[in-house]
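Notes taken during the Thursday session

The instructor put the following on the board and asked us to keep it in front of us for the whole hour. The protein is Amino acid permease. We were told not to look anything up and to reason only from what is written here. First, the residues (479 in total):
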Amino acid sequence: MAETDANSMKQQLKTRHVSMIALGGSIGTGLFLTSGSSVAQAGPFGAIAAYIAIGIMVYFLMTSLGEMATFAPTSGSFAEYGNRFVDPAFGFALGWNYWFNWAITLAVDTVTVGLVAQFWLPQVPSWIFSAIALTLIFLINLFSVKTFGETEFWLSLIKVVTISFFLFIGVLAIFGIIHSDVDVMKNLNVGQHGFVGGWQGVLSVFVVAGFSFQGTELIGITAGEAKDPSKSVPKAIHSVFWRILLFYIGAIFVISALVYYQDPRLMSSADSGNVMMSPFTIVFKNAGIAFAASLMNAVILTSVLSAANSGTYASTRTLYSLAQKGQAPKIFGRLTKNGVPLASLLLTMAVGLVAFTSEMKGGNVVYGWLVSASGLTGFLAWMGIAISHLRFRRAYVAQGNKVEDLIYKAKWFPAGPIIALVMSLAVICLQDPQSFANWQWDKIAVTYLSVPIFVIPYLGYKIIKKTKVVPLKEVDLKD
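Then, after some discussion, the predicted structure tokens were revealed:
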């Protein structure tokens, strides 16, 4: 049954779908809204340095995932690899942790849709827009994988076109082709030659940059349903990485050149739900584009829907894979005729309904804790990818195979995954180190709640099932 189900899910996503799903998951409000606060915290080149460093780390992770995904394509991605290459308890914790991350992200995004849509219709309750968004996402994911892929392609394309237009307008403004009173050299040379706050300022942006790049690992999720993953996954890895790096670095440079880093609108953008605080909007308005606010609000709305759409896909496929391995109830491992894990989709949608608790008395408290609980899950997933890849390559060689025979080989092994592992761990530890100085337990609990949500399932499964780390000679390398 599992093999039949797996076959029915394959051959439905084209290369352009695979690329755009990962691109759509990683380019969202983090770029359109919080990129301005990064410049305010670390200065122009401090922010750029942080994003380049995290971008390199993400590239290593993507190539690690690409090597495993082309060798053994699966819709369960790194949770499945954690099962096979490390320890069933590790895969169990990784899978449930990742499902929880995207399910809560769906709730967060539906709330955001309601708030953004009120820009045009402020008199309409936000929960109505949230309900419409949740229903739309459910229907898109219900019909077929192909429908989902096509929808995500066009949603992501809107973002790509917007960023490209922004970069074009920005370059014209920087060179004075579009009238601007901005002193570009003064803006870029603030602080210590573009760096503000020293190394601490750069480190503070590491966390923001890390969250911004999350979603790139969706390439691994799509591999199990991609047409010819041995070709589509490597192409997607290279195209997505360079596009993301170009978009983020290019956008931050344009923002830094055209908006002073202490501009109050820029500094408040990370904490304000007002679309007018988007650095993109500021640049457009300064360039004399009158409809900038409405334009960016529409793009941000599209961006949030795209992220929620990708997240729903990722969470349902992760839960489906867990069920296939007996690590979730069997009902979540059943597919419709269209190859959709309906029960997994319904459970994910049920978590999305948490969005509506924010409209109820005390709901903000519950909602806030759930958001905090999902905060570090993306970095834990990245650590899982690095560990799984290190184990996979060692097992592959230990069982007498030649690295040259791999369809796709990760770059800089073993340095690449080790660097990614160390950097992910550093970002987790640097979330809020000041809270440990005075042992502020309430802040520690909220900030690091994701860690016990991973550790407890891992230890619980390990104790109950009595699992052990899989010996290298016994690792399942069937592709």
